[in-house]
Amino acid sequence: MNNDKELAINIANNINGHLGTNAETKKIPVGISNRHIHLSQFDLEILFGEGYQMSKLKDLKQPGQFAANETVCIAGPKGSIVLKEKAIIAKRHIHMAPEDAQIFNVTNGQKVCVAISGERKGILGEVVVRVNPNYSLEFHVDTDEANGMGLSSKDTVEISTLIL
After folding, report:
1. Cβ neighbours of residue 35 under 8 Å, at least 6 residues apart?
2. How much is the pLDDT for 113?
3. Which H or E run includes 158?
4. Which family is this sequence assigned to (predicted)?
5. Of 110, 138, 135, which is closest to residue 125 (Cα–Cα)?
């Protein structure tokens, strides 16, 4: 059985080699995503007033995206809380431009597996591909998963041919 697995890996590697893709172009930078919320201008004005513009804390890797200084409060029937740091945990995903999607042979909305190397190597499944001309190539994973896999924002990952 072990020989069959090794044979399958060798065949997959040979096929990939014959496709003319450079292994270095298959690397995807890691972006560790803190819990956050995305607001439309409409929702922003409900929360902060007409014409309000958020103040930038810092730029993010995605073009035109930034972390804001503002926080939001969540109200329920029995009380409310102010979220000073964390709001939403995004599902792990890869941002990529259409040109990147062609290189990786993937489509918008497709789910892939991502191979992580290093001391805590592993495979993460159910990674959603998000294709948009305004995106910069980056794998987004939440802080908890990044810590569990030993990932930092200086690391890279690869789309895996293994299916989970």
Report:
1. 85, 86, 87, 88, 89, 142, 143
2. 94
3. strand 156-160
4. Belongs to the PduL family.
5. 110
Look up residue 8 and give its two tokens: 């399958």
Domain coverage including residue 131: 22-34+90-160
Q: Beta partners for 114?
A: 124, 159
Query: Per residue in 121-161, pLDDT tens?
Result: 899 999 999 999 999 999 999 888 999 999 999 999 999 87
Question: Do both 53 and 97 map to the same domain?
Answer: no
Q: Looking at this protein, which amino acid is placed at residue 105?
A: N
| pLDDT in the model for residue 84 | 60
Cα–Cα dist 19/140, whole Å: 27
What total number of domains does the chain contain? 2
pLDDT in tens, 72-98: 777 778 777 766 655 566 789 999 999
Q: Evaluate if residue 30 carries a pLDDT over 60.
A: yes
Q: Do 27 and 49 have their domain in common?
A: no
C-alpha Rg value of the chain to the nearest Å:
19
DSSP alpha helix (H) spans, the chain: 2-18, 41-48, 98-104, 143-149
